[in-house]
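Subgroup meeting minutes
Present: P.N., E.W., G.H.
Scribe: E.W.

1. P.N. recapped why we're keeping a running log of single-chain structure predictions: easier to compare across weeks, and new members can see raw inputs and outputs side by side.
2. G.H. added today's entry (493 aa).
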Amino acid sequence: MKNAIRTFVEVTTMPLVWALAFIITVTEIPAAFLSTSAVGAVASAIGLPAEIVPELCSAAVCCAVLLSPPRFASLVQRGWLFVVAPALGILGLLICCVPGQESLHPLAAMGGVFSLQVALSLLLLMGLELLSGLSSLEVRRVVVGSSIVNAIAMGAAGAAPLLFAFGSLILGSSILAVARKTTPALREGELKSLQERHVEFPYVLAVGLMVVVASFGFLQELLYQQDALAVSWVIFGTKLAAVAVFVGVLTLMGDANYSTLARLIVTLAVAAFLVFLAQGSYSLLPSIVMNIGYSLLEMTTLVIAAELAATARLRPLRLFAAIYLVESIGYIVGCVMAQLSFGAAGLGLRSGAVLLALALVVCAVWVFTEKRVNEFLWGASNGISDVDVQFLDAGEGALADGGSGCDGQEGFSPAKGEGLYGRKVAALAESYRLSPREVEVLELFAAGRSAAFIAELQFVTINTVRSHIKHIYSKCDVHSRQELITLIEHQMA
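Output recorded in log:
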């Protein structure tokens, strides 16, 4: 009980929790509740559906970040952005969302939309950049905490959406400035060294992510046709349900089993389509299933992006921009499909739902496999030598201190700081940002335990154990078990 209370206090006092919660809230409010005449004016001028305009602006910002020169490798190190970004956001809200703007010139409306989306995209990227400086456990706590606060805010936003939008923007940007002083971000020297490592872009996973987001974009386009009050309660309840699912999966399946989350998200999207097809019309039931999946997708994207930024040694800013560019393109595709289907007397909507559902099944079976997802996060081999692979696959591992193998040791699980190397493992974990599960695996691995024994003890697969070892190697910048043990021995006890 005391640990739960202490964890709750730690999470609720982290500025980044509140900053991300309010920034995400202000990005969701206009699409869910506000009838933005400025967006409609821009959409009419360029001949596109109104829902696509904000996503096009966000995609443009992400493209600009990806094409930016190396000296712009960080946003949080430029203090003036913490003033300029919220100012642009306030200007954009005044132009886009305040009633009585129906007579705006399309160019003025376009300026307002672009100002708002640039501000929100910059603030979100700055928050994610700070997120990548945290440990794996802290990242999960921030994501869960911010999702809960965001759910409460979105549940209440239906009563006064414009007021909540202004309040969320001001609070989010202000708290983000505070988080900048209290959250360890990557230093400039580290950013410079990270630019030299080449990482292959995962095209298959990018296409899979695009299909998933397109499916949710298709369904959300229909959800936002519902009553605003109903939408607010759907968002509130489903976000809390997604938090429970997220915590449950990572607790039961292990820290590295992100492929399970990906397949669960796909399953929820397919279920929403099946309910829609069975009913013959859109209702709140597929909305509930869809929104749980979409909220789970948002949380998983944040965690995986931060995880990848830490383990693959990529520049966080460009990494996040690439991921959200893929999501923006996918959402645009989904909204276009929904808009094109509206005039077909229901036949078009059914055809689009069937097409996307089939694409999702392909993603679940072929794209989001455990092997593919783990290789994306930690690499195919990541420097593990053939000797170490044989060691991992061995049926038994002799303890380095001369003890027995895994037989008779069913209950053996050294607590943090009490294993073969004692406090040296705890010191290494603190220095290299290892998660609690990685510390447990490290203590067993360094003591000579086999992958089969560790997997059975931790209730995970052998591939997951391998992924943990690869993850540890990457964080500690070693290439063999002996190098890892030497690094442990050199820690100050």
